[in-house]
Specification:
Layout: H1 9-22, H2 29-41, H3 47-54, H4 65-81
Length: 87
Amino acid sequence: MSTNKQLSTGILSVLPMIYVGWSDSVLSPSEIDTIKVKIDELKHLSAEDKVYLKSWMNPLQPPSDKEFKFWASEIKSAATNLDQSTK
């Protein structure tokens, strides 16, 4: 997965869940199913965002270290930019 894509606010809203899911380096089938269902339920995500997020759910292609670090950086950056009342 490329780390060059500008992540939408929709993607950023789901990224912590995906990050935690992959944090132990393995995504179980039940975790994959749960995350995919949640992605489908979120009405604020565009169809493109949903496809992009689900592309990260392949246990045969886990995120690289570079990708995982990029996610952490993006999550921290998004959290820093949130209005205090939004947090």
